[in-house]
Amino acid sequence: MEGRFFTKELIGKKIETVSGHTVGILSDFVIDTDTGSIKYLLVKPDGSVMTNSLKVDNVGRLVIETDRIRIELDRIVIN
User: Fold this and answer.
1) Taking CA atoms, which of 29, 42, 52, 78 is between 20 and 30 Å from 58?
2) Distance (Å, rounded) from C-alpha 75 to C-alpha 19?
3) Residue ranges of domains in the chain, CATH in brackets
4) Residue-level pLDDT at 74
5) What are the distances in angstroms from CA 31 to CA 9, 41, 61?
6) Element (H or E) spanning 23, and its range?
7) Residues 6+ apart with CB under 8 A from 24
8) Which helix (H) or strand (E) segment is 9 a member of?
9) What is the phi/psi pair of residue 44, to 5°?
10) How many CA atoms lie within 13 A of 34 on its CB side?
11) Helix, strand, or coil here: 20?
């Protein structure tokens, strides 16, 4: 199953920008129940991230669309 991951393998991974700035830690996923695909990542933001201009859920986690990410060995990168 190369190129595929179990969600439990990804929860807790560091989320970074392409420039290496830490955004936060992956907390959970939002899944499209019609297609079964992952729509969004829910990220517990790093203390230095300004969330006021970003989309957040009702508990303050960043909501990141999956078309903006790539998965590397020990981190997830936002493009």
Assistant:
1) 78
2) 13
3) 7-78 (2.30.30.240)
4) 76
5) 16, 9, 16
6) strand 22-31
7) 14, 15, 43, 44, 45, 46, 49, 62
8) helix 7-10
9) -75, 115
10) 1
11) coil
Which amino acid makes up residue 50?
A: M
**Whole-prediction pTM value?**
0.81
β-strands 22-31, 38-45 pairing = antiparallel
* Rounded distance between C-alpha atoms, residue 70 and residue 43, angstroms: 15
Asked whether 7 and 70 are in contact (CB, 8 A), the reply is no
Q: What is the 3-state secondary structure (H, E, C) of 31-51?
A: ECCCCCCEEEEEEEECCCCCC
The amino acid at residue 33 is T
Give pLDDT, residue 3. Answer: 67
Residue 66 is predicted with a pLDDT of 87
Which amino acid type is present at position 54?
L
